[in-house]
Amino acid sequence: MNKGKLFEEILKPANCPNPYPLYSQLRATPVSKQEDDTYVVSTYREIISLLHDPRISSDLRKSNRGSGELAKKIESGNREPGFIFRDPPEHDRLRRLVMSEFTPERVEGMHDRVTRLVNELLDAKKSDHGQLDIVDDFAHPLPVDVISEMLGVPAEDRPRFEVWVHC
After folding, report:
1. Buried b / exposed e across 73-85, counting CB within 10 Å, b at 16+?
2. CA dihedral 82, 85, 89, 90 (to 10 degrees)
3. Does pLDDT of 8 surpass 90?
4. DSSP states along the chain
5. What does the alpha-carbon distance between residue 128 and residue 99 come to, in Å, rounded to a whole number?
6. What does each C-alpha distance from 82 to 90, 126, 134 come to in angstroms?
7. Torsion angle of alpha carbons 92, 97, 103, 106, nearest 10°?
8. What are the pLDDT digits (tens) for 141-153?
9. Residue by residue, what is the 3-state secondary structure of 133-161?
10. CA separation for the pair 147, 145 (Å, rounded)
11. Whose CA is closest to 98, among 109, 84, 110?
12. What sign has the CA pseudo-torsion 119, 125, 129, 133?
C-alpha cells in the first residue's frame, strides 16, 4: 500500500476494531511523507528524536504549517497560541502553572462531582433511544467539564473554553 495513503487508512472508522496490521505496515517505514506533504513518524525512537530536536517547533508561527487559520489569528494579534503550540521554555512555564492545579488531593476531591457529570452525560442520552457516541457525547465533554471546573472557568464561559480546547 502507498505509504501516503496508509495513515489515511488507519484513520478510517472501519479499521478501528483492528488497526494493528496497518500499524505494523506503518512501522516498516518509520518516517513517511504523505500526499499532503506532511510526515507521519511511527516509531518511538524517531518520535523521541524529534521531540528533542531544537530545529522542530510546536509554534505555528515558526512553522511551514503556519499558514493555517490558527496561525493567521495568532499573527494578527487576535489570539495567543495555547501552551501546546509553544516551545520551551514558555511551554514548560505554562504547563507547570496549569499542572499546579491538578494535585492528587484536588483530583480526589473531584470524585463525587465527576460521578455526577458522568451520570448527567449518560442520562442526557437516555432520551436519544439509548444512542451514545462515546467520543462526542462522553469522552470529549467529560474532561472538558472537569478541567474547566478545576481551573475555575465560570459556567457561562464554558462554550468559549470548549472552542479553546480545539486550538
Report:
1. ebeeeeeebbbeb
2. -20
3. no
4. --HHHHHHHHHSGGGSS--HHHHHHHHHSSEEE-TTS-EEE-SHHHHHHHHT-TT--S-GGGSTTTTSHHHHHHHTTS-PPPGGG--TTHHHHHHHHHHTT--HHHHHHTHHHHHHHHHHHHHHHHTTTT---IIIIIITHHHHHHHHHHTT--GGGHHHHHHHHT-
5. 36
6. 11, 35, 26
7. -150
8. 898 888 888 888 8
9. CHHHHHHCHHHHHHHHHHCCCCHHHHHHH
10. 6
11. 84
12. negative
58 grid coordinates: 510546536
Cβ 65 vs Cβ 81: under 8 Å: no
CB 4 within 8 A of CB 32: yes
Whether the Cβ atoms of residue 95 and residue 87 lie closer than 8 Å to each other = no
Crossing angle for the helix pair 158-165 and 141-150, to the nearest 10 degrees: 120
Look up residue 153 and give its amino acid.
V
pLDDT tens, residue by residue, 37-90: 778 899 999 999 988 888 888 777 676 555 555 556 555 656 677 777 788 888
> CB neighbours (10 Å) of residue 36?
7
User: Three cell numbers at 35?
Assistant: 500526499
The cell numbers describing 142, all together, are: 467529560
Quote the CA–CA distance of 145 and 113 in Å, as a whole number. Answer: 10
